[in-house]
Amino acid sequence: MIFVFIPVALISYFNLKWVYQNCNKTQAVFITLLFAGTLAVCMMTAAGVQLQSMAAMVGDLMKRMGLAYPPME
Amino acid sequence: MKLESGQITSSQYMLSVACFIQSAALLSSFFTPITRQDSWLVVIFGMVAAIPVLLVYSGIMSSFPGKNLIQICNEAFGRVGGAIISLMFIWFFLTLTSLHTRDLGMLVRQTVLVETPTVYTTSLYIILCAYALLKGIKVVMRYAFAFVIISFLLTIVSILLTLNIMDARNFLPMLTLPAIKYVQGTNTVLSIPFGDLIAFLMVAPNVSQGKKRKRFYLFSGFLLGSATIFAVVARDTAVLGSVGALFSSPSFETLRLANLSNMLNRMEILFIVVLVIMLFFKIAVLYYVTVLATAQLFGLKSYHPLVLMLGALVIAYSVFVYPDETVHAASGREIVPIFWLLFEFFLPLLLLIVGRARGLHKTPPSKEAA
User: Fold this and answer.
1) Which domain holds residue A9?
2) What's the number of domains chain A is made of?
3) Helices A25-46, B304-320: inter-axial angle, 10-degree rounding
4) Is B351 within a domain?
């Protein structure tokens, strides 16, 4: 996990530094949240947490609603 | 606000479209199990069905010259509505990038580097794509010509080398499957390789030629790319017949069978090399589009600070986008063809209708946007 944390944290540090110097406060808040979310997702994936993607969730929902082709025989 | 200053020529645009479609040769496994020996027919049906979709894309390009998809969304749907639709498109592009990255990792693991964890391959690949992106769109698009030529050459050589094992009877029986299978196959062809061209609406403002020529080059690129897909699917059917439906990559198996007097064999490695090159192009374009769309939505002055961070997200997302390959394949056949139509046809159509109804197409592009 440490091998994921170090590069992603370094990327965040240098890129956020640029964002704080060149963008307004609202943009900086959104980008910080985006980076924090990405860091969290990377850490959870590296830790082996079974995340469910939105694509899989929407797929399940569509299947339940009958918005899918029939499965292969 | 213009985030990308690099310009590409119309011919580069055309070849990029062709290259983008050619890289989908791997994805024939989504529809060959459905339509088996008639897969070459659904490619033709898909090409015909893609014409209205491409007309919508070219309509958007000519109605809103000098603006990319996110800018058009903001204009047509307003600040809040535009942001919601833009977020949906960003999620779509991010998912496409991750799915293709995952496909590449699995392909390499199944065929060449069987003991190397997928995440190492995908990480190296994304680092390479990120390097290309940091250099700008021009650098990525410049290689399309070489990639298209390589792909054409491999397709021609592979057809010649497999001529001796082709059997015309493998195409029979024709049109005997239930109608729903043809609808599903056509929808899959339309959504998965062809509909992905929506990504080029983000690149269109960087094409240096006029709008009419842009439409011509979009269609020309589409024809070049889809002709290659057709040739690949027809070759696989002629060699493998309905058995091709059993393989995860029919083209790989076809080239494995290619043998010229015991002198030239094991040609499948060429297929893998070319596919890895083509997927580099497709992933780089989708990755670029994701980064550019995100930077555009947040109103950043440059997309560069997002490149590496979104690359990390793509790698992580490619790991958990589907729990395993069976679910991925089933989703690609049963759900994705329907779901992707929302992003590839219905939303762009709505965008075009709303934009035209509000008279936005009559507004001349601002100097800043152009």
Assistant:
1) 2-65
2) 1
3) 30
4) yes
Domain for residue A47, yes or no? Answer: yes
pTM: 0.94
Nearest CA in chain A to B35: A72
Partner-chain contact B330 A72, CB within 8 Å: yes
Distance from CA of B300 to the nearest CA of A (A): 7
Amino acid at B325: E
Q: What is the pLDDT of residue B210?
A: 60
Within 8 A of B327 by CB-CB distance, chain A residues are 56
Percent of chain B with pLDDT over 90: 57
Predicted confidence (pLDDT) at residue B36 exceeds the cutoff of 90: no
Tell me how many domains chain B contains: 1
Nearest to A27 among B184, B300, B312 (CB): B300
Q: Is residue B267 part of a domain?
A: yes
A38–B180 C-beta distance less than 8 A:
no
The rounded Cα B329 to chain-centroid distance in angstroms is 17
The per-residue DSSP string of B2-18 comes to ------B-HHHHHHHHH
Q: Whole-angstrom Cα distance, residue B188 to residue B330? A: 12
Contact A22 B313 (CB under 8 A): no
| pLDDT band, very low/low/confident/very high, at B26 (cuts 50, 70, 90) | low
How many C-beta atoms lie closer than 10 Å to residue B257's C-beta? Answer: 15
* Domain presence at residue A37: yes
Our CA angle for A17, B319, B285, nearest 5°, is: 65
